[in-house]
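Title: Prediction job returns without error message
Component: structure pipeline
Severity: low
Priority: P3
Assignee: unassigned

Description:
Job completed but the reporter wants confirmation the result is attached to the right record. Sequence as submitted:
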Amino acid sequence: MKAMKILFLLLTLQLLSFSAEINIDKLIDKATKENKHVYVYLHWKDCVYCQEMSMFTLDTDSVQKAIKNDFYYVDIETSKNDTVIYRDFKGTSKEFTKHIGFGFPVSIFYDKDKSVAGLFPGIYAEDEFLVMLKYIKNNSYKKMELDQYEKKSDLKRRNRCQRKY
Protein backbone atom coordinates (compact mmCIF):
# COMPACT_ATOMS: atom_id res chain seq x y z
CA MET A 1 0.00 0.00 0.00
CA LYS A 2 2.83 2.39 0.85
CA ALA A 3 4.46 1.67 -2.51
CA MET A 4 1.19 2.56 -4.29
CA LYS A 5 1.02 5.91 -2.48
CA ILE A 6 4.60 6.71 -3.43
CA LEU A 7 3.96 5.73 -7.05
CA PHE A 8 0.83 7.88 -7.13
CA LEU A 9 2.75 10.83 -5.65
CA LEU A 10 5.55 10.47 -8.22
CA LEU A 11 3.08 10.32 -11.11
CA THR A 12 1.23 13.37 -9.79
CA LEU A 13 4.46 15.35 -9.47
CA GLN A 14 5.46 14.34 -12.99
CA LEU A 15 2.13 15.57 -14.38
CA LEU A 16 2.42 18.84 -12.49
CA SER A 17 5.89 19.44 -13.89
CA PHE A 18 4.75 18.78 -17.47
CA SER A 19 5.67 21.61 -19.73
CA ALA A 20 5.11 22.33 -23.36
CA GLU A 21 7.65 23.71 -25.76
CA ILE A 22 6.60 26.86 -27.58
CA ASN A 23 8.97 27.38 -30.47
CA ILE A 24 8.12 30.81 -31.86
CA ASP A 25 10.75 30.49 -34.61
CA LYS A 26 9.09 27.36 -36.02
CA LEU A 27 5.65 28.95 -35.76
CA ILE A 28 6.89 31.97 -37.69
CA ASP A 29 8.17 29.64 -40.44
CA LYS A 30 4.75 27.94 -40.65
CA ALA A 31 2.89 31.24 -40.60
CA THR A 32 5.10 32.67 -43.34
CA LYS A 33 4.13 29.81 -45.66
CA GLU A 34 0.50 30.86 -45.21
CA ASN A 35 1.26 34.59 -45.53
CA LYS A 36 0.37 35.19 -41.87
CA HIS A 37 2.01 36.77 -38.85
CA VAL A 38 2.42 35.18 -35.44
CA TYR A 39 0.47 36.74 -32.59
CA VAL A 40 1.68 35.93 -29.07
CA TYR A 41 -0.57 36.82 -26.16
CA LEU A 42 1.52 36.86 -23.00
CA HIS A 43 -0.46 36.91 -19.77
CA TRP A 44 -0.70 35.69 -16.20
CA LYS A 45 -3.67 33.71 -14.86
CA ASP A 46 -4.22 35.93 -11.77
CA CYS A 47 -3.88 39.25 -13.59
CA VAL A 48 -7.15 41.21 -13.59
CA TYR A 49 -6.11 43.19 -16.67
CA CYS A 50 -5.24 39.98 -18.51
CA GLN A 51 -8.64 38.53 -17.67
CA GLU A 52 -10.32 41.70 -18.92
CA MET A 53 -8.35 41.62 -22.17
CA SER A 54 -9.30 37.98 -22.66
CA MET A 55 -13.00 38.35 -21.86
CA PHE A 56 -13.83 41.67 -23.50
CA THR A 57 -11.45 41.70 -26.45
CA LEU A 58 -9.92 38.37 -27.42
CA ASP A 59 -13.10 36.38 -26.82
CA THR A 60 -15.25 38.52 -29.12
CA ASP A 61 -16.40 37.00 -32.39
CA SER A 62 -14.87 39.70 -34.59
CA VAL A 63 -11.42 39.51 -32.97
CA GLN A 64 -11.41 35.71 -32.96
CA LYS A 65 -12.34 35.67 -36.65
CA ALA A 66 -9.61 38.19 -37.55
CA ILE A 67 -6.99 36.25 -35.60
CA LYS A 68 -8.05 32.92 -37.09
CA ASN A 69 -7.95 34.29 -40.65
CA ASP A 70 -4.71 36.23 -40.54
CA PHE A 71 -2.51 35.07 -37.65
CA TYR A 72 -1.01 32.10 -35.90
CA TYR A 73 -2.16 32.59 -32.32
CA VAL A 74 0.08 31.60 -29.42
CA ASP A 75 -1.25 31.81 -25.87
CA ILE A 76 1.54 31.98 -23.29
CA GLU A 77 0.28 31.81 -19.72
CA THR A 78 3.30 32.58 -17.57
CA SER A 79 2.37 30.54 -14.51
CA LYS A 80 2.72 27.38 -16.60
CA ASN A 81 6.09 25.72 -16.86
CA ASP A 82 6.33 26.03 -20.65
CA THR A 83 9.62 26.44 -22.45
CA VAL A 84 9.71 29.30 -24.96
CA ILE A 85 12.19 29.39 -27.83
CA TYR A 86 12.72 32.55 -29.87
CA ARG A 87 15.96 33.33 -31.72
CA ASP A 88 18.76 33.00 -29.14
CA PHE A 89 16.38 32.80 -26.17
CA LYS A 90 15.36 29.52 -24.56
CA GLY A 91 13.74 29.57 -21.14
CA THR A 92 10.50 29.45 -19.20
CA SER A 93 7.52 31.58 -20.09
CA LYS A 94 8.21 33.66 -16.97
CA GLU A 95 11.81 34.22 -18.11
CA PHE A 96 10.52 35.14 -21.57
CA THR A 97 8.44 37.91 -19.99
CA LYS A 98 11.58 39.31 -18.37
CA HIS A 99 13.46 38.90 -21.66
CA ILE A 100 11.03 41.09 -23.59
CA GLY A 101 10.88 43.58 -20.72
CA PHE A 102 7.13 44.05 -20.31
CA GLY A 103 4.53 43.02 -17.78
CA PHE A 104 1.04 41.69 -18.41
CA PRO A 105 -0.80 41.51 -20.63
CA VAL A 106 1.23 42.09 -23.75
CA SER A 107 0.44 41.36 -27.39
CA ILE A 108 3.46 40.64 -29.56
CA PHE A 109 3.36 40.25 -33.33
CA TYR A 110 6.19 38.67 -35.32
CA ASP A 111 6.84 38.92 -39.04
CA LYS A 112 8.45 36.53 -41.51
CA ASP A 113 11.93 37.86 -40.69
CA LYS A 114 11.42 36.69 -37.09
CA SER A 115 11.52 40.26 -35.89
CA VAL A 116 8.91 42.02 -33.78
CA ALA A 117 6.30 43.65 -36.00
CA GLY A 118 4.44 45.13 -33.06
CA LEU A 119 4.54 45.02 -29.29
CA PHE A 120 1.47 46.35 -27.50
CA PRO A 121 1.40 46.14 -23.71
CA GLY A 122 -1.86 46.64 -21.86
CA ILE A 123 -5.53 46.06 -22.50
CA TYR A 124 -7.46 47.23 -25.52
CA ALA A 125 -11.10 47.47 -26.45
CA GLU A 126 -12.37 45.31 -29.28
CA ASP A 127 -12.48 48.05 -31.90
CA GLU A 128 -9.02 49.39 -31.17
CA PHE A 129 -7.55 45.89 -31.16
CA LEU A 130 -9.10 45.22 -34.57
CA VAL A 131 -7.28 48.31 -35.86
CA MET A 132 -4.00 46.88 -34.54
CA LEU A 133 -4.69 43.55 -36.22
CA LYS A 134 -5.27 45.31 -39.57
CA TYR A 135 -2.13 47.40 -39.05
CA ILE A 136 -0.05 44.24 -38.67
CA LYS A 137 -1.91 42.19 -41.30
CA ASN A 138 -1.44 44.90 -43.96
CA ASN A 139 2.29 45.23 -43.12
CA SER A 140 1.71 48.90 -42.37
CA TYR A 141 4.11 48.64 -39.42
CA LYS A 142 6.92 48.64 -42.01
CA LYS A 143 5.88 52.06 -43.30
CA MET A 144 4.46 54.01 -40.37
CA GLU A 145 3.64 54.11 -36.70
CA LEU A 146 0.25 52.90 -35.50
CA ASP A 147 -1.10 56.39 -34.84
CA GLN A 148 -0.16 57.46 -38.40
CA TYR A 149 -1.92 54.36 -39.74
CA GLU A 150 -5.05 55.25 -37.83
CA LYS A 151 -5.07 58.78 -39.21
CA LYS A 152 -4.27 57.76 -42.78
CA SER A 153 -6.87 55.00 -42.89
CA ASP A 154 -9.39 57.11 -40.98
CA LEU A 155 -9.66 54.45 -38.31
CA LYS A 156 -10.22 55.67 -34.81
CA ARG A 157 -9.40 53.89 -31.60
CA ARG A 158 -11.18 54.86 -28.45
CA ASN A 159 -9.17 55.70 -25.40
CA ARG A 160 -7.68 52.59 -23.87
CA CYS A 161 -9.74 50.61 -21.41
CA GLN A 162 -13.06 52.16 -22.36
CA ARG A 163 -15.84 49.79 -23.30
CA LYS A 164 -19.55 49.91 -23.82
CA TYR A 165 -21.38 47.71 -21.35
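Comment from assignee: result matches the submitted record. The CA atoms of residues 54 and 61 lie 12 Å apart.
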